[in-house]
Design a protein that fits this description.
Layout lengths: L5 E5 L21 E8 L7 E12 L2 E8 L10 E5 L10 E4 L2 E6 L3 E7 L2 H15 L3
Antiparallel strand pairs: 1-7, 2-3, 2-8, 3-4, 4-6, 4-7, 5-6
Keywords: Toxin-antitoxin system
Protein name: PemK-like protein
GO molecular function: DNA binding
Length: about 140
C-alpha cells in the first residue's frame, strides 16, 4: 500500500470539543474505527496499515487515535484498553493510544472498520478531557 501523508502530534495540541457521531455513510466520523496506513515514529518513511479510532474531523482531515492489540500496552498509561471489536478479525483486545493524535487526509482511509459503541467512546472522550484538555 502506498503511504499517505500524515503526521502525529501530541494530543493536547488538538484539544477540541469531542462528540460521538458515527454514521457509516462512507465519510469517517467520530466514533468510527477506520483502517489507514500509519507511519512508524522512529522511521516515518515506513509504517503499516492499522485501525484508528476517529475522534474529530476538520472538513476532509481526520483526527484519530491508533489502536493496537499488543498486550504490552496494558501497563502503559498512554494506552487505554477498549476491548475487542469487528476491526480485529482475530477478536483480540485492543488498546487506544491517548497521547498522540494522527492527522490523516480522508482519502488516506482504506476502509471503515466498525463503530465503537457509545459507552467505550465516552470512556476515551472522558480521558481526553481529563488529561489532554479536550472538552
Amino acid at each position: 500500500m502506498t503511504p499517505h501523508p500524515q503526521n502525529s502530534r501530541p494530543t493536547n495540541e488538538f484539544a477540541r470539543e469531542i462528540a460521538y457521531a458515527p454514521d457509516l455513510d462512507g465519510a469517517a466520523d467520530p466514533g468510527e474505527v477506520v483502517w489507514t496506513w500509519v507511519a512508524y515514529e522512529d522511521h516515518p518513511d515506513q509504517g503499516k496499515d492499522r485501525p484508528v479510532l476517529v475522534v474529530g474531523r476538520d472538513d476532509r482531515t481526520l483526527l484519530g487515535l491508533m489502536l493496537s492489540s499488543r498486550e504490552y500496552h496494558r501497563d502503559d498509561p498512554d494506552w487505554y484498553p477498549i476491548g475487542s471489536g469487528s476491526w480485529d478479525s482475530q477478536g483480540r483486545q485492543s488498546f487506544v493510544r491517548l497521547d498522540r493524535v494522527l492527522v490523516v487526509e480522508e482519502h488516506g482511509i482504506r476502509r471503515e472498520g466498525a463503530i465503537l459503541d457509545r459507552g467505550r467512546f465516552d470512556e476515551v472522550a472522558d480521558l481526553l478531557r481529563r488529561h489532554h484538555g479536550w472538552h
